[in-house]
């Protein structure tokens, strides 16, 4: 039984954050709650319908291409206006359209249309959602603020997958899309109710950057190229974990037997539970380290995790334990990467390019989905397993970690 004192402590902890930071945290929770099941379960749902791995990967690739275009426009819009309300509401409407298409989809065509709307919604939403945090967090340190919003997203994704998995198995196979529609309506309500105060808050804090070292910054940081490349590599790894790994497990490895959907859902749930509990403590710990420490820590975790997935393809009985341990490393890598990447990209950009920089960060996620799932889908259809993919990711992450190891920022 939860004691009243515990509830009071939790309430006091939550209230200490600025109102608008709490607002954007709630918005990002609902966005993740709706998207959680869509991200992790869409590939399995349409695999059951009969779409090939190539078709499924193509959908994610087209989604990434559309997202690339919308991110460019959103970044420019944010630089010129500094307003996040219109992009977030627009992305919610597009996400509702995407879910409706995917609900009624029975073939590749409507699936591709739905994924196109998903890409457009994501491309508009992410730069705007990231853009508001540094301006809403004062006097909280930006990395701690990003750890908070990422923790809410971890909770949202976990609950979205948990609820989505239950409803998909026991109620309706495409119930995750109904849940997404509900969450988008909640987000639209939050924005419409607080539109005026959001506008005033953004206008006040855009006149002065919270960190004085960023004032007058006219050029990109000298380490920008390797930082952006490392972020792109990690986002590609995340895309493969979310989209390709479930297909790899359900198809089986070189010697590893195919796993049932129930076991795959259990493994994914364990990883999401770990991320849920690790995000805030790891994010807070990372915020006390050097600004590039989180990226380095993430790269080495993804390197070892991918190597374990590679080995698991050649084993049978111990494979389950290797996969489970690899997802522990993925959780650690993700928990350190998500708050760090946003803060670092915001810091390396010139003062007049912050919106563009956050659009670029969001673009890295789009490019990760562009390269990863389509290529891996072809490999899965050709060979039936994805071991070469995991080995390649492991080597690339370790090489970039070695290059980034001595860099300071």
From TrEMBL:
Principal location listed in the UniProt entry: membrane
Record keyword Cell membrane present: yes
InterPro entries in the cross-refs: MFS, MFS_dom, MFS_trans_sf, MFS_Transporters
Origin: domain of life: Bacteria
Molecular function GO labels: transmembrane transporter activity
One cellular component (GO) term of this entry: plasma membrane
Name of this chain's protein: Putative multidrug efflux transporter
Species in which this protein is naturally found: Prochlorococcus marinus str. SB
Biological classification of the source: Bacteria, Bacillati, Cyanobacteriota, Cyanophyceae, Synechococcales
């Amino acid at each position: 039984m939860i004691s009243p004192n515990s509830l009071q402590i939790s309430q006091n902890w939550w209230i200490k954050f600025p109102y608008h930071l709490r607002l954007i945290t709630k918005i990002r929770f609902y966005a993740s709650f709706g998207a959680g099941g869509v991200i992790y379960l869409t590939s399995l749902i349409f695999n059951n319908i009969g779409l090939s791995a190539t078709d499924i990967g193509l959908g994610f690739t087209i989604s990434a291409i559309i997202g690339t275009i919308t991110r460019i426009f959103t970044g420019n819009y944010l630089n010129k206006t500094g307003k996040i309300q219109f992009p977030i509401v627009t992305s919610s409407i597009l996400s509702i359209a995407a879910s409706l298409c995917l609900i009624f989809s029975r073939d590749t065509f409507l699936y591709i249309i739905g994924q196109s709307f998903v890409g457009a919604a994501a491309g508009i939403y992410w730069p705007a959602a990231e853009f508001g945090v540094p301006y809403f967090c004062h006097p909280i340190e930006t990395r701690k603020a990003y750890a908070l919003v990422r923790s809410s997203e971890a909770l949202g994704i976990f609950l979205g997958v948990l609820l989505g998995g239950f409803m998909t198995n026991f109620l309706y196979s495409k119930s995750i899309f109904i849940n997404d529609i509900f969450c988008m309506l909640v987000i639209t309500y939050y924005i419409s109710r607080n539109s005026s105060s959001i506008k005033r808050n953004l206008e006040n804090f855009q006149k002065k950057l919270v960190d004085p070292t960023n004032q007058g910054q006219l050029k990109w940081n000298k380490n920008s190229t390797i930082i952006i490349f490392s972020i792109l590599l990690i986002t590609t790894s995340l895309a493969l974990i979310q989209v390709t790994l479930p297909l790899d497990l359900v198809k089986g490895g070189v010697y590893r037997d195919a796993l049932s959907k129930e076991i795959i859902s259990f493994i994914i749930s364990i990883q999401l539970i770990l991320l849920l509990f690790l995000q805030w403590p790891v994010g807070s710990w990372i915020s006390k380290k050097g600004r590039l420490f989180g990226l380095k820590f993430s790269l080495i975790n993804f390197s070892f995790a991918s190597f374990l997935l590679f080995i698991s393809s050649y084993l049978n009985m111990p494979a389950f334990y290797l996969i489970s341990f690899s997802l522990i490393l993925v959780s650690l890598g993700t928990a350190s990467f998500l708050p760090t990447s946003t803060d670092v990209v915001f810091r390396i950009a010139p003062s007049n390019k912050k919106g563009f920089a956050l659009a670029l960060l969001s673009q890295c996620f789009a490019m990760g989905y562009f390269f990863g799932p389509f290529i891996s889908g072809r490999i899965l259809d050709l060979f039936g397993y994805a071991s070469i993919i995991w080995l390649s990711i492991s080597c690339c992450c370790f090489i970039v970690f070695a290059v980034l190891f001595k860099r300071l920022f």
